[in-house]
Amino acid sequence: MIEKPKGIDVSTEVAPAAEFEFECKLPNGMHARPASRLAEIVSPFASDCLLTNLRNRASADVKSVLATIAADVRSGDTCLMRVEGLDQVAALAALRTFIAEELPGCDEPLADGVPEGSAPKLPRGLESAGIGYLSGLPVSGGIGQGIAVVLGPTAITADFAQAAAPNPNSEHERVECGLAGVRARVEGLLARHPAGTEAAILKAHLAILSDVALRREVARRIDSGQSAAQAVVEAGEHFSGLLQRSESANIRERALDVRELCAELLEEIYGPGLQTAAVELREPSIVAAETLAPHQLLALDRQWLQGIVVESAGATSHAVILARSMGIPAVVGVVDATRLLTPGEDAVVDGNRGLVFPHCPAPVLRFYRREREAQDRRRAALAEYVCARAISADGVRIEIGANISSAVEAAAAFESGADGVGLFRTELLFAHRNTPPAEDEQFAAYADVVRAAAGRPVILRTLDIGGDKPLPYLKLPAERNPFLGYRGIRIYPEYREWIATQVRAALRASAIGPVWLMAPMVASVAEALWFKREVASGMGELRKQGAAFDARMPLGAMIEVPAAAFLLAPLCEYLDFFSVGTNDLSQYFFAADRENARLAGVANVRDPAFLALLQQIVSEVRGRHKWIGLCGEMAGEPRHLPLLIGLGLDEISVAANAIPGLKRSAARLSGSVCRELLGRAVACGSAAGVERLLNSAVPAQDAEPLLSTSLMMLRSDSRDKEEAIGEMVNALYAAGRIDDPTRMEEAVWARESVYATGLVQDFAIPHCRTDAVSANSIGILKLDRPIEWGSPAGSPVRMVILLAIRESGENGLHMKIFSKLARKLMDEEFRRRLLEIDDPGEMISLLGRELEGIAG
Amino acid sequence: MKIVAVTACATGIAHTYMAAEQLEKNAKELGHEIKVETQGALGIENALSARDIRQAQAAIFAADIEVEGSERFEGIKVIRVPVQDAIKDPKGVIAKAQK
């Protein structure tokens, strides 16, 4: 039987219930977020806590989030809180304090992770064609093409005509059996995916399956004469509807979980005929859905899944996180996608720009074919750096590791050439669930990563949570200033069992391959020693159990609290390695919240003061022969690389997709020049001075010649000006000479709009000066068929000469080359030669002769 | 004959130099001696000295904008044409200066 709601049967053995009334002052009522805080407050107590909304007489066991939301407490409603049980005095006091002090603060807007900004724009090459498209939020990059497959909603259709009034007892039983079946299935899945993102989601589902209020709603409806199906449908709709109305995007996304589980429950009870059968993909496909549950995504054949389009908006939904980790292009928040995409028709998803093309006329296919070719060429061009070591021109080596948050990302990281995992954030393992993960589950996740690393080190950071990154089951009071609060290693003594479990799991993984373990937020030697003792005791336990581990597993600390930077001498005595977390270190160092837009320029990692701090940290650690890496966002920006190499770091750790590019950049740099540059940067008076220094120190020119065969495109089938410019921009992108093709293309068009550059008969010289360019370049496009350029001269163009110059530190190079070319093109003989040449090498030598002395 | 010229277009990035090139090339073909000052995005290049101007029989301003330092040319014949004329019909422009 489904258990009876708590708090209704009054036990005679305890003191009379204590109660108090309060008025809900939350502007948006008791939505999911305050409700979940309320549940956290009461869960440690044994007493029953019943909330009654005096407006509608709805009651809720506040230990159930779903129930509290369902009581529909609105702003201004008066509620009765009734507490009853052995610890009711303490529970009542905790509730009173919470409701008086914390609850009113529960309603601050929650960031949705949906960036504000203009709607996505069509690329130039498709603008004029009048092609229909949908737009949304790009959440996972890349371009996907395939036939549209529209997933039926996980909607629960209440289409059950009952011949006879059901017998409540048998219906209760059906639901119980169904729940047991679904639970078993979820647990089975969990056994197959014991770690990482999938596991976290499955755990969350198990929690919903046992939500007291959900089960009570189902039971109540059955008691009132409904069939199990009707009861499940209605209860599911009821709760998902309530969650859907939440202000918080995170909670709205949980509504999907409820609907999906109810659908699974129905399927368990009535067999699969009730539901849309699982979709089987048989060819490259774009999958569109109103909402997409992680289960649905995992059920799709990755081999054929080319892109995902979802109507609901949520950059942080579980399915989106999975899509990103699998590298599947995805656009969310696409209004009416399931209606506008026609099953079986070709569709294109542009996960870079946030565009979806439900129909693919030839221009769209052609445009994206060309763009995909460029991406493939770029990947191929970078491939040589994937396996290469990051090593400067004069032999200074820096390891480039990957930052990951889940085991599923590890394989992609190593495919991108990671020298190791520089930061495995373990928080995701603990998120979206009700209890911390067990040792075996953590071990499985860590072991997966260690195996993928195949001998390369995996730096695992123990749990970094607290007020800034709350977990529902972490019973921490709200803090006025969570970033300066109870977080990181500071909470470890209180949650010692969690950390002990994590340490054991990490130690066991160290038996498989190198694991380095580090603690976050270390600010004192005592904390480091506590951590070290904890690891020693974990080793002791494992030894007793006879479990294998690496007794010399390196131990380290994040350097993110400025105090730690001045304790490095003693810390080096106890620890083996360090990793600088520049995100937190900079905001603590400058006392400036990095998420406060008005302080955006304050916590600047390029500020000479910060660079001096880094310099001191690195030289102190290196001087003591310990290992030091850097894993903040600072490391991901290619233009910081000279400073980071100059610092003498052993390693930097970045997002996987940035690795090949950084390895290539490293190869262009000289270690001694970098050291000298850092010295000058530290001596600058301001961040602006450092910026100028970095800009003038563009290393690109030395290593990349202005002219290269990959940019001599002497057989182009471009059909118009848009395509021609697009083709050249793509070529620069493929050659790694620009990193942001959209910005580059806009810069070229900005000049074209002032006046079309079809200067001379047969020739156009589009050009731009922008920092989207990382290596100055001249590209040549010889057209098979002349195209219109829209110049005043009006003559069609047979050859396009694109001039792409980096803005910073360019010293007039752009105009020198441009004016020289403009002059030379006055020479008919020169023009004739250009048009005749069909060998890239010959083209380069002709242009090279003319530009000698200008381009260096 | 000796000619001096100044080219300057509105944006100063292409036509200034194209016009200069055309005037230089065609004047030489016609057997004249010419020096062309460009007033473009790169600033003033190949600046005409007082002596250059004094020795010239005519000056050509192929300019869509005000020529900087036009007072330098007081006392000699100045032909003013749009930049495009110098690009499209440099010989015609030179012929005007000869008249």
What would your notes on this structure say?
- The complex is a heterodimer of chains A (856) and B (99).
- Chain A is built from 32 helices and 25 strands.
- By secondary structure, chain A is of the alpha/beta class.
- Chain A has five domains: 90 residues, Histidine-containing Protein, Chain: A; 116 residues, Glucose Oxidase, domain 1, CATH 3.50.30.10; 107 residues, Enzyme I, Chain A, domain 2, CATH 1.10.274; 305 residues, Phosphoenolpyruvate-binding domains (TIM Barrel, Alpha-Beta Barrel), CATH 3.20.20; 148 residues, Mannitol-specific EII, Chain A, CATH 3.40.930.10.
- In chain A, the strands form four sheets. In chain A, strands 5-12-11-7-8-9-10-6 form an eight-stranded mixed β-sheet. In chain A, strands 13-14-15-16-17-18-19-20 form an eight-stranded parallel barrel, surrounded by five helices.
- In chain A, a hairpin with a 4-residue loop joins β11 and β12.
- Chain A starts with 17 loop residues before the first strand and ends in a 5-residue tail after the last helix.
- With 99 residues, chain B is an alpha/beta fold.
- Chain B has a single domain, classed as 3-Layer(aba) Sandwich (Rossmann fold), CATH 3.40.50.
- Helix content of chain B is 36%, strand content 29%.
- Chain B contains four helices and five strands.
- In chain B, α1 links the parallel β1 and β2.
- In chain B, α1 packs across α4.
- The model of chain B has no long low-confidence stretch (mean pLDDT 92).
- Classes of the chains: A alpha/beta (856), B alpha/beta (99).
- Chains A and B meet through α30 of A and α1 of B.
Features:
heterodimer; A: about 850 residues; alpha/beta; Histidine-containing Protein, Chain: A; Glucose Oxidase, domain 1; Enzyme I, Chain A, domain 2; 5 domains; eight-stranded mixed beta sheet; eight-stranded parallel barrel; 25 strands; about 45% helix; globular; B: about 100 residues; Rossmann fold; five-stranded mixed beta sheet
